[in-house]
Design brief:
The complex is a heterodimer of chains A (about 250) and B (about 150). Helix content of chain A is about 30%, strand content about 20%. By secondary structure, chain A is of the alpha+beta class. In chain A, the strands form 3 sheets. A 5-stranded mixed β-sheet of chain A has the order 2-1-5-3-4, covered by helices on one side. Chain A has a 4-stranded antiparallel β-sheet with strand order 8-9-10-11. Chain A has a two-stranded antiparallel ribbon with strand order 6-7. The interface of A and B includes residues 161 and 163 of A.
């Protein structure tokens, strides 16, 4: 399948979304809730683009739009920029103190009108990436709760969840850094629960929780050495170097 | 715990809401233990069941009063000034909508339409309809119910 994105011919296959094809071809489409490795959620709606199919044109969300052969895509028109600005204004009213949203608003020249003061200040934009991440891991500790203006992401009953392993994936994928993860003296606190951290046997840095380690070991049925990602990469690198030294 | 209601359902995800509705009907709310049992029974994460239980307005996580008062605020009732009926109830009972009185007698809720627009403004107390409400009528109804409970 061949599609035209901003004048560039891009290859793609059936079932792929516009966002995936654009990403592979280094074409930037702004978005908050899209993350590589996740299916498009279509929640933040910042990835609006114009699609021309024959004589018809329409505006779609790139992260959930499956490509069709021969379509022409324009990622930025006056109309789209105006729509994006409206969306950013709404996000800014929801999260006026959030650095990521503030940066985005500045980039697009969006200012919040004075008449909308006294808005609540919530860093979370309810994109649901954290819920998705937790589900993908199979831990399912958090979900959307309540609805409408009271909707939020939380553990059941706001209690410390017994399903949570403190891996921090939710905080990792959050586009607005809304999930609070604190690490003090070898203890990680997230979603009202505290976890003891494990030290890397090589560098001595705290790198994961005991619960995450146990979860991975049970899944893989394999006991791992307690080594952090950085030290693992280092060891792998020197191994590589050694084996090449023997060749030359 | 009477778990027969839950056990009578096949163990499939799609029965979650039906089970929760049954628990709500039986207990007037959804106790935590029942939610936990439902999640175990259906092999669903507790977070999923909790998400559903908090999403629907007809499911409650807190125990409801003996009399659940639903004030209709659908279009027809709203135009007929259902808000003043609600205010009167709030004044008499001393609670906001969504709350329950301390003696556990009354719960107050606002609902969107109960399909009795001809009787607007209308309120519903434990499945009994009270139509063409006025502030005075509200007072009598509540006093009657308080009287009934005091005599028991």
């Amino acid at each position: 399948m061949l599609i035209n994105i901003d004048g560039k011919m891009c290859k793609g296959h059936a079932g792929e979304t516009l966002m995936e094809v654009a990403n592979r071809n280094n074409i930037d489409i702004p978005s908050l809730c899209y993350k590589k490795g996740f299916e498009g959620l279509g929640r933040c709606r910042l990835c609006l683009v114009e699609v021309k199919e024959g004589k018809r044109k329409k505006i779609v969300s790139a992260c959930v739009y499956p490509i069709k052969d021969g379509i022409e895509v324009i990622t930025s028109t006056d109309e789209i920029i105006k729509m994006r600005k409206d969306i950013i204004l709404l996000l800014l009213l929801r999260s006026p103190e959030n650095d990521y949203i503030k940066e985005l608003a500045e980039e697009y020249g969006v200012k919040s009108p004075k008449k909308y003061k006294d808005q609540k200040n919530d860093d979370c934009i309810l994109c649901g990436l954290c819920v998705e991440a937790c589900e993908k891991l199979g831990t399912n500790a958090i979900s959307f709760v309540y609805r409408g203006i009271t909707k939020k992401v939380s553990t059941p009953f706001d209690d410390p969840s017994k399903d949570c392993i403190g891996c921090g994936s939710c905080a990792e994928v959050c586009p607005t850094n809304a999930i609070k993860l604190r690490e003090i003296n070898g203890t990680r606190t997230i979603w009202n629960r505290s976890f003891d951290l494990i030290q890397c046997t090589v560098c001595g840095n705290y790198y994961t929780t005991a619960e995450s380690l146990k979860y991975v070991e049970e899944k893989l049925d394999y006991e791992e050495d307690h080594i952090c990602e950085r030290c693992k990469r280092k060891a792998m690198g020197s191994k590589f170097k050694e084996s090449f030294q023997n060749i030359y | 715990m009477s778990l027969e209601i839950i056990n009578s359902y096949p163990k499939e995800k799609r029965y979650t809401l039906a089970i929760l509705q049954d628990i709500q009907r039986e207990h007037g709310y959804i106790p935590k233990e029942y939610m936990e049992y439902t999640s175990e029974y259906l092999n669903l994460p507790l977070s999923d069941v909790y998400s559903i239980a908090t999403f629907y307005k007809s499911l409650s996580l807190k125990p409801k009063g003996k009399y659940v008062i639903k004030v209709c605020n659908g279009t027809a009732c709203h135009i007929r000034d259902s808000i003043s009926i609600l205010k009167e109830l709030q004044d008499i009972l001393g609670i906001e909508s969504g709350e329950t009185t301390e003696d556990g007698l009354f719960s107050l809720e606002i609902v969107n339409c109960i399909g009795a627009c001809a009787l607007a403004p209308v309120m519903l107390i434990n499945n009994k309809y009270y139509g063409a409400m006025t502030k005075e009528k509200v007072k009598t109804v509540i006093e009657d119910l308080q009287g009934v409970s005091a005599n028991v």
